[in-house]
Amino acid sequence: MAEFIVHTIPGSPFARSVLATLEEKGAPYRLAPVVPGTLQSPEHLARHPFGRVPVLQHGDFWLYETQAILRYLDRVLPQQPLTPDDARRTARMDQAMNINDWYLFNGVGTVIVFHRIIAPQLMGRAPDEAAIAAAMPKARTVFAELSRLLGGQSFFAGEALSLADLLLAPAIAYFTMTPEWAEFGVPHANLAAWIERMESRPSMKATTWERVIAMAKAA
Amino acid sequence: MSAFTIHSVPGSRFGRSVLATLEEKRVPYRLAPLEPDALRAPEHLALHPFGRVPVLEHDGFRLYETQAILRYLDRVLPQPSLTPSEARRAARMDQVMNVNDWYLFNDVGVILFHRVIRTQLLGLAPDEEAIKAALPKARTVYDELARLLGEQPWFAGDTISLADLMVASTVDSCTAIPEWNALGAPHANLVAWIERMQERPSMQATTWERVTAMAKAAQSFYVTSDAR
Q1: CA–CA separation, B187 vs A133, rounded Å?
Q2: Separation in Å, CA of A88 to nearest CA in chain B
Q3: What is the per-residue pLDDT for B122?
Q4: Which of A33, A71, A75 is nearest to A53 (CA)?
Q5: Which of A63, A94, A141 is opposite residue B95, by nearest beta carbon?
Q6: Pick the CATH number of A4-81+206-218 from 3.40.50.2000, 3.40.30.10, 3.40.50.150, 3.40.50.300
Q7: Does residue B123 surpass a pLDDT of 90?
Q8: Judged by CB atoms within 8 Å, which residues 89-148 of A form the interface with B?
């Protein structure tokens, strides 16, 4: 099988989902670092016309969109499947993946994680407290719904890890670094226990921001 | 197989993708119509905490998020299959479904909002400046859809897939607005594809007019049964 190459910027939660999925599969891969600030360059737009990351290169097959990449990896690397075989469990996996994209990322992660972590650490800007406050009602709804869907299960699609956990965990790992986590995690003990379970997995430990920066430097 | 109930607002493009998929599977279903201003009502938020449509109910199982609903229908109604068995074709289907959600909905949806929703439902004039500002990104989306379709009859190859049913409802709406000339018309492959889609009974059975008629039929039933 051809080598998996993941084009990304270190720090991208979506790319971490892809890298962690490759780690779960035990598949060798190579990181092709994209320099921040070059997402709109002709070279990167040829890989991803909307100028985002990650992009997967597998032989002559190029694929962008994280959900599509995760599902592709689970099809071509079927050992230790990350998709349940029951239709309703799979539907919960698919639903949680779309909640990640539509609600957790848009208007919640793009505001709270951006202003608490990205803007201060990468851009040297103070967090916009008013923007964070405005995003809190939607954020509370998202975390309450994720907690409801997780329920008493170990993982989002049941007792086995699935692509939904690997898509959500890198995003939620960022929230645990913000003071707002006290409002999201503490009232939802099941969610707090789930992210601790996820962060203790070798796949997540191998793909922290620091580890991905080290991979990028090595590349 | 017990009945499928779809909670939706007539005119919802995502709702139409679900209804057209049920039509492709040739199974009976029931539309539970919502007024647009009922999306934030407590009864609807109990079905969908983010106040959107569609929501599927099937034999005690409730599911929102259109991609999840389409994939679920294709699993519990396996004939005819709407997911390719080959990994790379399936990946193209998945990619196009997400191009729909991330880019077509946001970057082209703003133009449809001004041309269709504002004028037809809210009785307001379209904001021409906003439409003009949205055109470059919308063009990128259409260029990319045309590239991904290429010479194939359907987005995932030689057979129709969930991607076609997801994207067609938005592209069909675009064919009715003047911006189609700049967005879709320059791409002969996309024009031929949407014409193929529009000819399908599944798309003809789920036009805005047909879904409005289904909604009226459902509402008159509720009114009749509520009458004392």
Answers
A1: 44
A2: 7
A3: 81
A4: A33
A5: A63
A6: 3.40.30.10
A7: no
A8: 90-91, 94-95, 97-99, 101-103, 141, 144-145
The secondary element (H helix, E strand) that includes residue B29 is strand B29-33
Size of interface A-B (CB pairs under 8 A): 85
Q: Do A90 and B101 touch (CB under 8 A)?
A: no
The pLDDT score that the predictor gives to residue B13 is: 96
The beta-carbon neighbor of A72 closest among B63, B76, B91 is B91
- The torsion of the CA quartet A181, A186, A188, A189, rounded to 10 degrees, works out to 120
The pLDDT of residue B1: 54
Mean pLDDT (whole number) for A118-133: 93
Q: CATH: 1.20.1050.10, 2.140.10.10, 2.60.120.430, 1.10.10.10. Which one for B87-203?
A: 1.20.1050.10
Record: contact A101-B50, CB cut-off 8 A: no
Residue corresponding to tokens 């004392």: B228
pLDDT value at position A122?
A: 85
- What number is the average pLDDT over the span A146-166? 98
Q: What is the mean pLDDT of chain A?
A: 96
Does the beta-carbon distance from A49 to B143 stay under 8 Å? yes
**Strands (DSSP E) along chain A, which ranges?**
4-8, 29-33, 55-58, 61-64
- Place A79 in a pLDDT band, splitting at 50, 70 and 90: very high
